[in-house]
Amino acid sequence: MRTLVLWDIDLTLVDYSGIGRRWYADALAEVAGVPLAHLPSFPGRTERSLAREFLTAHGFEHSDERVERFFAALTALAEQDRESLPRLGRVLAGAREILTELASREDVVQSLVTGNLPVLAGYKLEAFDLHHHIDFEIGGYGSLSEHRHDLVEAAISQAASKHATAFDSVVVVGDTPHDVAAGLHHGTTTVGVATGRYTVEELTESGAHVALPDLSDTPAVAKALLA
Prior knowledge:
about 45% helix, Rossmann fold, two-stranded antiparallel sheet, alpha/beta, 8 strands
């Protein structure tokens, strides 16, 4: 049985708490020349959704052209911080071990459904040498849509096309009810991980098929993902 596992990044695999606020404030100053006055809620959101809310809240039209300029500014800021990212963040417990375990299995493909821009996703995982386990070509990224379920659809479609097969099982893993809802929208197995702002109970109530406190118990996590 072939399984496609689609990982969220922030507060599921790694923690860069605080860096988003700085990048958004600096990107706003560059694109619009105004100081930060409003910060959107980040968990589970896509970069396109966040950028549009952010620009609107600061009095600017969220046209596609302006959003793309904002994305370019975020990408440039991430590039500047690239070498510092190992000091600005941390790998969450068990993330490295479960990625490595799944990578050892020929019947598993790992990719992403993340609100991050593609370049930011790569940098955040590369900082801790986690990128080798992920197929970035078939991921669903936050530049695509305001709606997270569109990212899941894109990832599944691209994976099926690249591997010339319909996967027997698709698993979406994340730390928020948004991740869970996006997976459920497409009938995937959903696994919630309570390493962000939501508890095991809240993730279970949101509909997650399995909710884990963290990724530290590699056999238990593998069982949940490959059941």
